[in-house]
Amino acid sequence: MTTPRTVELVVNGERRAADAEPRTLLSDFLREGLGLTGTHVGCEHGVCGACTVLVNGEAARSCLMLAVQADGAEVRTIEGLGGIDDMHPLQEAFWEKHGLQCGFCTPGMLMTAVELLESTPNPSLDDIREAMSSNLCRCTGYQTIVEAVQAAAERMQGEGQ
Question: Would you tell me how many other CB atoms lie within 10 Å of the CB of residue 98?
């Protein structure tokens, strides 16, 4: 049996710590260790993108990263994006453009889109399609997701974000 180790992260701007076995995945650490269940676990092989979070500002598959690898990192999850009373422009656009149906892939889609819009504030449709192609959705057909990311980009440029 391995000895748990304390893993410390800055999650959504708040310093958090919990014990984790060395083999604990970041997705499990977030969900079970920290109670942040917005990060979904789909394929557990890094293929679907449902577990995508931002680690030090870059999209990462939390099902492929060990919690101990993220020790000391800044992690942003869907819970840090915005709430019902203060939605992020991406959340608003996904809602308005019907960029989700069942919602399982949505946290990963949104976090992937956040990384895109923070690095490329005025993405082309090809940029959006390329970035979002790394996440799988079995419901929407992707067009409404692309439209939502495009609408959010336009809104964010208008707000000067």
Answer: 13
When the pLDDT of each residue in the chain is averaged and rounded to a whole number, the result is 95
In the sheet where 58-61 sits, what is the strand order? 14-20, 5-11, 74-76, 52-55, 58-61
pTM over 0.70: yes
Across 13-104, the runs of DSSP E, i.e. the strands, are 14-20, 52-55, 58-61, 74-76
Give the closest residue to 98 by CA, choosing from 131, 140, 132.
Answer: 140
Both tokens of residue 105?
A: 């892939």
Tell me the CA end-to-end span of the chain in Å, nearest whole number.
48
Element (H, E) at 9: strand 5-11
Query: What one-character DSSP code corresponds to residue 40?
Result: -
Rounded distance between C-alpha atoms, residue 120 and residue 117, angstroms: 5
